[in-house]
Amino acid sequence: MEIDLPQLAASYRESIQGILDENSLCSLASVSEDGAAHINTAYFAFDQQMRIYVLTEPATVHAQNFARDSRVGVAIYDSSQPWGDPHRGLQIFGTCEGVADQSNEPVFEVYTNKHPELLRLCRTSDAMLANLKSRFYAITSQRVKLIDEPAFGEETHFEFEVFSNSARSVQQEH
Fold first, then answer.
1. How far apart are CA 134 and CA 145, in angstroms?
2. Which of 96, 113, 119, 153 could cysteine-pair with 66, CB 3.0–4.6 Å?
3. Residue 46: beta bridge partners?
4. Which contiguous run of DSSP H or E holds residue 88?
């Protein structure tokens, strides 16, 4: 699935798209009830608006955290990148909310396109809702930090604010 952020320069879109396409796992940071950080790993998929979708049980600590405080930090990267080599990844900051059951079908399609293994457990969105405890959660990106040293140079990072279906660069770091 191609991301649709026309205000973003093509080179940034291609870089972000490549990182999302090449990776399946992300790390999610949430805020616990006592204010402490909580982190977990999840498989993800994404749509054209760069919403990130994860599948998890509502009873998990992170899902409970998101129900109470929707703030989220997400890291997407290939953890096998050797130390000292140019590296690439995304850091995403935004909000995470449960996907309503009536909105499940298009998310099921996005998710199973990236992770067809889910179809072995349930062939349809309705079957998933009926037979699995897990539910989809949608992460809406508000700020994205792009690190793609092979494309943009050593220690060059870009930050973007994301507004609905557009993005603008807010900062370049060296």
1. 29
2. 96
3. 52
4. strand 88-98
